Amino acid sequence: MAEPAPPQSPKRAFTPQSIAVWGLVALVGAIGWTALALSRGEEVSAAWMVAAALGSYAIAYRFYARFIVNRVLKTDKTRATPAERLDNGVDFHPTDRRVLFGHHFAAVAGAGPLVGPVLAAQMGYLPGTIWIVVGVIFAGAVQDMVTLFFSMRRNGRSLGQMARDEIGPVGGAAALIAVFAIMIILLAVLALVIVNALAHSPWGVFSIAMTIPIALLMGFYLRVLRPGRVTEVSLIGVALLLLAIVAGGWVAESSFADTFTLEPGTLVVWMVAYGFVASVLPVWMLLAPRDYLSTFMKVGTIVLLALGVVIALPTLQMPAVTDFATSGKGPVFAGSLFPFVFITIACGALSGFHSLISSGTTPKMIQKETQIRMVGYGAMLTESFVAIMAMITACIIDPGLYFAVNSPAGVIGTTVESASQAVAGLGFSISPDQLAAAAKSVEEASLLSRTGGAPTFALGMSEIFSSVVGGASLKAFWYHFAIMFEALFILTTVDAGTRVGRFMLQDMLGNVYKPFRQISWKPGVWFASAVVVGGWGYFLWVGVHDPLGGINQLFPLFGIANQLLAAVALAVCTTLLVKSGRLKWAWITAIPLAWDAAVTLTASWQKIFSDDPRVGFFQQRAVNQEAIDAGKVLPPAKTMDDMHTIFTNATVDGVLSALFAILIIVVIADAARVCWKAIRDPRSVTLHEVPYEKSRLVAPAGLFPTKEEKAELATAGVEMAGPSTETASRP
């Protein structure tokens, strides 16, 4: 069946009112950027950062994303998506766009947007903020949306399989190996963050455990009891979620506290079991409703945090740009602004992990092609705003406190006196009494060397919320609420990521044994899920029992591996734009690809060959070897056995960094070859796009139906009595 030309979206003429509105939005954003960029030596309100980000996001979503959807990709609302054509109620299932937005956002928004900006704040608030906003508009959100589109046109194929199909066996094999290996590392790192947040926390464990039965209830409510009643189930879910959070506090103070106080090893077992179950159950039953439920918590908290900033108007105490941006001698992480701030801040600006979700669960659930702007681009903008709020929380606290919290014990020592002196040596000041008072205000014994970013985010969040509600008396409550919030934020990435890993492995094995290509084939589902959870579960288990082993060994690869993955996704998208006759628009992914490749390969080069042992893996290996030969023990090692372990870790990290970089270079080079061949001889192009099939579903493209979409829904027989009844329909 020949594919008809996609219907053109009606052009909306600009009215004086719309011109005034968008002019005002642009003005607010411009004033925000001006205040951030030009203010030196005076107080700058964090509200300007909120204004700059939101103004930029609004302009990008309204104009740039719409241009890509309509002019470049030419989405077709009459074309059936895989969710409609292959609906089997397990992996392929047409899902209301609001629920799917929640699933997609929850799946991609993990530790990155909360932690990365906090760590990058050591460079000052301005470099990270610019990268977060500019990066998401022109790179991250574009990658997510374009990957989603092309995967959707290929029955929801995984990124690695699309690379093999469209680039060829050499680049495809390199992509498959790199993508799957990086996926296991990313999942184990995210899971480790959750374990660290929930260990010995009965409040967090109880509240998060309760989201599972609540999600099951929501899934059956939408599927069986009240199909299509999204607003109803949303209200029920949010009410139960709030009750679970409050009840978590009760449990923590009751006799049941010991039941929900879990050791790290126990948490690993439960997380592996949950990851396996979530990846094999029908997507409508647990995964999608739980992610949707979590989104209310995530977005709701971030919105309240933004409102708190606007009400309390805290000032940015961190300088716009610190000396560490050029010296590369920062105590939080070593390396200069270029390239390491762009590696440290991944999620929120550009993240390769997102491409796995965009070519994993989401393309198998989306109702209409026209919904990719809301789901792909919109969810990534939302995550970017989370990163902006994380940057604010890190920069409104006293810089002396920031460096005391985020610097390792080897730099600041273990007492408030030594920390105060070390911070003074960094160019900032904070007294021992102030450090002790900061810990006491959040009911912690100490805040020294609470590295990783999460405690700093919680400190800033408690500062903002306590300024608006409750004052100093509730600061400890808000701090521990933020810690629990971060764990909930990240767990949704692990369950969706496990399912995506299962899809990737099935695609890979399908090249050898064809039944694996049937994504919902039960033997394949169970086998692939077991392999994936076994992979990240192993590294996690070793990591929680050995501070220098397991995933702790691979943790330094997290940022670079994630951005190398983005290079694969952008290379595949650029190749598909060229092969599908969109050469003049290939720059929308080719420019981000060139930037990402330059940044990430530079970082890889420095991590491999730098003569600074804090940066270069092999230099660190050499320093440890010299110390071992001399019989010395260097921090953070405590014994000679630790020294040998660090030596091994540096070797493994250096070799893997080189291997990943080589694999990505192979992918990009092979993609360039295919693009050049397609440009020179368009007739030789073979695309693996599935044939056109007319859609019978009617559903809106955005959050709120337009006047035309309401008419289509009414014609299709959907009663528009209220938002709870508006859904997709088959005429």
Automatic annotation (TrEMBL):
It comes from the Bacteria. Keywords: Cell membrane, Membrane, Transmembrane, Transmembrane helix, Transport. Residues 46-603 form the CstA N-terminal domain. It is found in: Cell membrane. Its main location: membrane. It is a multi-pass membrane protein. The chain crosses the membrane at residues 19-39, 45-64, 105-124, 130-152, 173-197, 203-221, 233-252, 267-287, 299-320, 332-353, 374-397, 477-498, 524-542, 554-578, 585-605, 655-676. The keyword Transmembrane helix applies. Belongs to the peptide transporter carbon starvation (CstA) (TC 2.A.114) family. This is Carbon starvation CstA family protein. It comes from Streptomyces pathocidini.
